[in-house]
Amino acid sequence: MYTLDKEQLVKNNATEPKISYAECPSPEQQIWYALQGAVGIVLFTLLALTTSFVIWCKF
After folding, report:
1. Which residues span the membrane (predicted)?
2. Is 3 within 8 Å of 11 (Cβ atoms)?
3. pLDDT in tens, 21-45
4. Does 40 map to a domain?
5. Are 4 and 10 in contact (CB under 8 A)?
């Protein structure tokens, strides 16, 4: 989309989107996010322990 100024020159300005504010997550979403975080921590811990064990056994 473009507009013309007084001298009929093209101005290629970006159109700004309408501002919308975020809403707080519902209690169900908060529980889901906490569960995802816990699963992520467990997976990361298992990965770190497995890597440490493999490196320790190698030497």
Report:
1. 31-56
2. yes
3. 999 999 999 999 999 999 999 999 9
4. yes
5. yes
Domain count, the chain: 1
Asked if the structure places residue 37 within a domain, the reply is yes
Tokens of 4: 């013309």
What number of residues does the chain have? 59
Return the exposure string of 32-56: e unless at least 16 CB atoms fall within 10 Å of the residue's CB, then b: eeeeeeeeeeeeeeeeeeeeeeeee
Burial class (CB in 10 A: 0-12, 13-18, 19+), 23: exposed
Helices (H), 1-59: 27-58
Expressed as residue numbers, the domain containing 29 is 25-59
